# Entry
Amino acid sequence: MVLESFISPLKAENKPWIMLLMGFIYAFVAVFLSLWIFKQYSSLVMVFLTVIAAVPLVYSTLKLEEGKDTEIKSEMSLLKEHSKALKFFMFMFIGFVLAFVLLYIILPPNLVQLLFSSQTETIDNINSRVSGNAISTSNIFAQIFLNNIKVLMFSIFFAFFYGAGAIFILAWNASVISAAIGNFIRDKIAEYTASIGSLNLFNYFYLFNLGLLRYFIHGIPEILAYFIGALAGGIISVAMINHDIESERFNNIMLDALDLTMLAIFILFIAAIIEVFITPIFF
# Structure
């Protein structure tokens, strides 16, 4: 494929910022292909096309990280090496979000409704569950944390059974977050227009960044945790494919995967605290 040949795992780890542009291109191309070829199902097809573009690089990276497990004995050194892959994964995810949010804002409302219909339905379901079942801050915290743990488990299992399959969970989350951000920005634009009249470029730039900040405060730690879980599941998957399960090195691989999973759970706990107790202070 053309898109997969632009960058290698080593280059992505050494220059992770490039993946911001690559993630943007993956998502941007996926949106227009889905609207062009599969318009009625574009809200899901754009996610699949984004995943297809990213899978070769993600799988190659998982193989690279599994190789480090068999060579590096120190767990701290391993975590430091894994951080390189996690960094470029995060840049790629942000690229997805920037592309989806930009298109959410600039495309006509009828196309936006079609393109993000499944994502909007998901957001409505989440909001209804929280407002309908959670009667206290502690209940909201527990519900959010447990839901995030569920997504983490999906990321681990998808990565284990499908190699780079966890990228589907993460691309889907990128599209859902983007729909929430885009809707927030559009509502703010409507408010500002009603109160001060026409908006200038600075106003649009401010509202765009405000929307990103509103959801990135807790969203970035959550997505980082999901990527860590995906890395753990993917490392075990690649190890089994390479028959490393039959070697003594498999104990090191399992220990590394367990450490990554525990780290992911801890980060999700912090992210839930931020979402419930800190984000509402500013928004």
User: Anything to note?
Assistant: Residues 69 and 253 are 6 Å apart (CA to CA). The mean pLDDT is 83. The chain has one domain: 3-282. The longest helix spans residues 201-241.
